[in-house]
Amino acid sequence: MDEVVETHGVGATAALLGKEVAAAVARRAAAAGLATPAGWSPRVAVERQLVDLLGNPREEGAAAGLATEGRLLLQLRAMLLEVPTPADSEGAAAAPPGDGVSASASLGALLVGHTLLATGHGGARTARLSAALPQYGCWRAPGPEYVAGHELLSTAESISAAREEYARTPADAPRRPPPPPAHPLLGNLLAPPVASCSLLSGSLALPPAPVTLYAFERGAVLAHPRMGPLLLRFDCGAAPRAVTFYESGGGDGDDAAQRGRTLLGFTLSAAALEAVVGAAAALVGGAAAGEGDLAPHEIGLACLSTQAHRILSREVPPPWNPLILTLTLTLALAL
């Protein structure tokens, strides 16, 4: 939509914008080699509205003066209608030629909202306010993956609660609770949950995401409120090729950034990356570079607090080191 607005200006009609966006979608689908049904052509409906900074609609005449003052917004809503199911290379039934596809072969519609700030005389220039927002968002949907993620996170939380209760109860207490149970896949929990962490994908497609780290003997659980828990295992085919521990700083200043910076880097194959982040692997992984399963990708886990730095630097790496060396992975300390 940005290219279309830049070409035709803020005054372009909704019909013209829809036609140009549909043509651009068709060109990009062909260039990307998408498996679209035979005879399919994109249909795009665009809603266009000019508003002031308070959200009040403005007519074309008054809009020109607001644009000159930098107080005019262009709100666009583009809907790609009847998104087709991917064509089956083994000979799935193709959609009949025409402007669209049948309802049974459609995945639904895709809605995109975009806001631009029109500046200059007549809105000759635009600034993309939506560019600061993440391109993609993830929410858990009902189904087997949601159930498995819920069970994984519930188990990690219950083990954490049992560990905390056991640790704060005196050893000579008459009714001390039993030691916390081990996770059936990941083993014992090594440290309290580390809430102040950020998952770094290394790609603009998946911006930094706040996660809570549950560090176990044979892997880790990274819990995100929308994506759900991400599972990292060190004892399976999707294990990281390398785990690198970076630490720097160490001053005595009041600023946490001056006292220490900690980062865990996990080098993953394309298959392992998909096992960790799901469908987002197609956006951030080595497969996007055209190297397939041979292209490794590194995701990072950064500390955002002094407590997180302390836990990751003191309690997590020592137990991980022997296991990682057994798996011929590397644990490096960079000062």
Which topology of the largest domain does CATH recognise?
PH-domain like
Uncertain stretches: 88-103, 251-259, 286-293
The CATH class of the largest domain turns out to be: Mainly Beta
Number of strands: 12
Multimeric state of these chains?
A: single chain
Structural class: alpha+beta
**Architecture (CATH level 2) name of the largest domain:** Roll
Nearest-integer average pLDDT: 74
Largest sheet: 8 strands, mixed
What percentage of residues falls in helices of 4 or more residues?
25-40%
How do the strands line up in the largest sheet? 8-7-6-5-11-10-9-12
Number of domains: 2
Number of helices: 9
Q: Radius of gyration, Cα only, in angstroms?
A: 26 Å
Shape: elongated
Share of residues in strands = 25-35%
Termini Cα gap:
46 Å
The SSE order reads HHEHEEEHEEEEEHEHHEHHE
Characterize the structure shown.
- The chain is α+β, with helices and mostly antiparallel strands and 335 residues long.
- The chain has nine helices and twelve strands.
- The protein has helices at 2-8, 14-32, 60-68, 144-168, 256-259, 270-277, 281-284, 306-314, 317-326; strands spanning 43-52, 72-84, 106-119, 125-128, 194-200, 209-216, 219-224, 228-233, 242-248, 261-268, 297-303, 333-334.
- The strands form two sheets. The protein has an eight-stranded mixed beta sheet, with helices on both faces. Strands 1-2-3-4 form a four-stranded antiparallel beta sheet.
- A hairpin with a 5-residue loop joins strand 3 (106-119) and strand 4.
- The chain is elongated.
- The two termini are 46 Å apart.
- Residues 88-103, 251-259 and 286-293 have low confidence and may be disordered.
